[in-house]
Design brief:
This protein is mainly beta and 404 residues long. It folds into two domains: 11-239, no CATH class; 243-376, Jelly Rolls (Sandwich). Helices cover 3% and strands 37% of the residues. It has helices at 321-325, 391-399, and strands at 26-28, 42-43, 45-46, 54-58, 60-64, 67-69, 71-78, 86-88, 101-113, 121-132, 143-145, 167-174, 179-182, 192-193, 204-205, 214-218, 227-233, 235-236, 238-239, 247-250, 254-259, 281-288, 293-298, 306-307, 309-313, 331-333, 343-348, 354-362, 367-376. It is globular.
Length: 404
């Protein structure tokens, strides 16, 4: 659900933002809903490796895509020290989920389905790790704290069962709405509701049998929902290095820093306008320009890495950015002048979203920045192009009048 607020952004670039919805290392659920399963989750991502200090969003009982939006699932990454991992819904600045929430934590895993010798598929799943409804008697709302012991962990802390520098999913939902799944990696015949009996004080580790499950949905018990805010620590952003974890940005102008060292090495063909240049590292952005007019995306700065840029329009009826990436691009460039950067220009429409693919196509250049700008079309009747329709425009028309 869309709510008004700030967006996740690297503090390294705050000085460069002039008219965007970004305002610090915070993440807002934004224009598209954070879904409730791994394929529909929202990645807390960036191309600069910033830390995350706050996440905001909204759940609702109102119909959304055929049903209530009762759970939001976020994809995040732990830092080096998992004892500092913290997700706290007791925000002193407001945003507490007064509707009665539960936090669940799942570990992201990639598994291969299908027996040897048969067609196999790679699937991303979410393994249950821990849950909490109320951390202790002194706090009214859920807290995940890596330094605190688990109720059923035999003295273990939450941080001790987490893996450093690893991707996880965090869910926000009503306290009685429990996750469901199968004990097999690739679905099975026996659907199980897990995290049962975890309504007491403290953080609860998933049971040995539940930890083998794969999140596929929720039991939908209860209708608790509403806005929420979570302060966070010990969490870094997921690198926006594939279309499924594209960094979402909006507004114009924007200056977004990037560091290709954060993106894994790949060996893929280059952009469609220069397919012979192999992509070595890459970032993806989902941009909503918030204007109708002409857009420019550029990495043309002195000393920039050798980048290319290709742009795809995201279908409003299919918001999956990876689906857009398989279509025909609307703009492509691999060289701006004599420099290594690239620059594209293309028409945009207010309310539309665009996938920007920015691979490094040669060399070892690492850091730089990419700018996003949108020049709005003048309003109809704006003869002199000053952005206004007034008496000055009328006087120009009258001065050129040749009719009766």
């Amino acid at each position: 659900m869309t709510i008004t607020g700030s967006r996740l952004y690297s503090s390294l670039a705050l000085f460069a933002i002039t008219a965007s919805a970004w305002a610090g290392p915070e993440f807002d659920e934004g224009a598209t809903d954070a879904g409730s399963t791994p394929p529909t989750s929202k990645s807390v991502s960036s191309s600069s490796g910033s830390a995350v200090t706050k996440v905001r969003g909204t759940t609702t009982t109102a119909a959304l895509l055929g049903g209530g939006d009762l759970v939001d699932l976020y994809r995040v990454k732990t830092g080096t020290d998992t004892s500092t991992f913290k997700v706290d819904m007791n925000m002193v600045s407001g945003g507490e989920p007064v509707w009665g929430a539960r936090l669940c934590l799942f570990k992201k895993q990639v598994v291969t389905c299908g027996a040897a010798g048969t067609p196999q598929t790679t699937v991303t799943i979410a393994r249950p790790v821990a849950t909490v409804v109320k951390a202790d008697a002194n706090r009214a709302f859920p807290i995940f704290d890596g330094a605190k012991q688990l109720v059923n962990g035999g003295g273990a802390t939450l941080g001790s069962i987490l893996s450093p520098n690893t991707e996880y999913y965090i869910s926000v939902g009503g306290s009685t709405n429990l996750p469901q799944g199968y004990r097999e990696d690739c679905n099975g015949s026996s659907l199980i509701t897990f995290f049962g009996g975890t309504d007491g004080l403290g953080q609860y580790m998933a049971s040995a049998s539940d930890a083998l499950c794969n999140l596929t949905g929720w039991n939908g018990v209860g209708t608790a929902a509403g806005p929420y805010g979570m302060s966070t620590a010990g969490i870094v952003t997921v690198a926006a290095s594939d279309c499924s974890s594209a960094m979402e940005i909006e507004g114009s102008p924007l200056v977004v820093p990037y560091a290709y060292a954060l993106a894994p090495l790949v060996n893929l063909p280059g952009v469609s306008c220069a397919p012979t240049w192999l992509t070595s590292r890459q970032f993806f952005y989902i941009w909503e320009p918030q204007c109708t007019g002409t857009a420019h995306v550029s990495t043309c700065t002195v000393g920039a890495p050798d980048t290319a840029i290709e742009v795809f329009e995201i279908d409003a009826c299919n918001p999956d950015p990876c689906a857009a990436a398989t279509g025909v691009s609307i703009a492509c460039n691999d060289q701006c002048g004599s420099g290594n950067g690239s620059r594209v220009e293309f028409p945009v429409t207010l309310g539309h979203r665009y996938l920007v693919w920015m691979p490094r196509v040669s060399g070892t250049g690492n850091t730089g920045s990419v700018t996003f700008t949108c020049t709005a079309l003048p309003p109809s009747g704006d003869v002199n192009g000053d952005g206004l329709v007034n008496a000055l425009d009328l006087s120009i028309i009258l001065g050129q009048w040749t009719g009766n």
